Amino acid sequence: MLLIFWILIILGIILLFVFFGYYNRFAILGNRIDNSLAQINVQLKRRADLIPNLVESVKGYMKHEKSAIKAVTDARKALVGAHGIEQKVEANRQLESALKTIFAIAEGYPDLKANTNFIELQRELTATEDKIAYARQFYNDSILTYNNLCKTFPGIFFANLYGKRERQYLQIAESEKKKVDVKF
Amino acid sequence: MKRIDFRDQIARNKRKSVFLMFSVFVVLVLLGYVISLAFSPEYFFFIMVIAIIFSIGYILISFYNSHKIAIASVGATKAYKDDYKQYHNLVEGLTLASGLPKPKLYVMHSQQINAFASGRNPEHAVVCVTEGALEKLDKNELEGVLAHELGHIASYDMRYMTLVAVMVGMIAIISQIFLRSLWFSGGRGNDKSKAIFMLIGIILAILAPIVVYLVQMSISRKREFVADASAVKFTRYPDGLIRALKKIKADYVPAEKKVSKAVAPLFISNPFGKLSNTHPSIDSRIKMLEKM
Fold this sequence. Notes:
CATH class of chain A: Mainly Alpha
Distance between the termini of chain B: 6 Å
Largest sheet of chain B: 4 strands, mixed
Mean pLDDT of chain A: 84
CATH architecture of chain A: Up-down Bundle
Shape of chain A: rod-shaped
Distance between the termini of chain A: 80 Å
Largest interface: A-B, 16 and 14 residues
Number of strands of chain B: 4
Radius of gyration of chain B: 21 Å
Strand content of chain A: under 5%
Shape of chain B: elongated
CATH topology of chain A: de novo design (two linked rop proteins)
Strand content of chain B: 5-15%
Helix content of chain A: over 70%
Oligomer: heterodimer
Low-confidence stretches of chain A: 174-184
Number of strands of chain A: 0
Number of helices of chain B: 9
Number of helices of chain A: 7
Structural class of chain A: mainly alpha
Helix content of chain B: 55-70%
CATH superfamily of chain A: LemA-like domain
Low-confidence stretches of chain B: none
Strand order of the largest sheet of chain B: 1-2-4-3
Order of helices and strands of chain A: HHHHHHH
Largest sheet of chain A: none
């Protein structure tokens, strides 16, 4: 009788730990998703912050390229004003194509191309674009891990218990990695 | 692509690290035992206490400073962000892709294309690349190499690997000293038992480097493949690492003299030439990467 009692106690404790373990696992993975989302935003903001400097350094050289410069400033405005990650990433895509135009035009201005400030900004912008791509990749990876836990047994049982639902992936232009590789 | 779950691997590496530290402790105390019996049995107790204190101190110091020892042993210097922008940017991108904290970055003054990672956990990790790698590899190739190193960090490989390199490497040095001192103190006391203990001492000293060799061989081989796979997981671009490995293979630079042999397995490719077996062959790694 006493033995059965102890066995039940031990089983109960083990079960409790399993419940705690899964709760924590969901919490950790959920935090990871939130954190990676924050990372995307950090990089997008850094990108937006770089644009005024770029416009400043380009303005003096590209007197006749008003529309291209305006496209960049407009795209930046859209990025700063965007709400929600989908909108922001879409705005960033616009910005990226506007920037590509600027950099293509810059090819025709040897003085500008030799300007260290401009070179520096161009490198920084490319680097932030890479980082955004990586942050998005990690965001989707984190969601995949989370969703796998939600969908597979025994995770599915705990997901229902704790009211955790599958999360949505970020689904925008996956070929971005290629686009970044443009040689200037 | 097969997904890599680091959790099992991390647990395994941590377990192995604890086991390693325990083994080092036992070996050191045993060494103290042999030394005290061989040279001065009258101070046996005293020497044993010293040996135990020394081994614990030794293990703690090498555990908390292993990355510093590794960095110092190859003579690397800190890579400042202003001087190495691309290096920093690439690592920052990869930390975003992997969710790891940013490691401290170092540069090693060598013309070889090589790199290694070290540290006891991702929060105290260091990554070191050679000047040769920074100069000869293009952006995607360098990124592949750095991603490989971050793969080692993520899986806690570098904890185990650095501990092996530093702790066991040190044993080799210590036993070498022991062996040498035997040559000079051969005259005193001709007891049979003394001769036996000396023999054990000599055997131990001869065994130590062989143990180093065996342990080092058991470290790298599989781990390099796993780190290659995690590099691809981070970059989603196997070509970068493939091209880097091809460049490493084609690039002939004489063996590194400044580097201690004990840290060789830490590197992405063996700094002492392609013939030694601390690493799987570059061809087999390229083959694996091409399948991804």
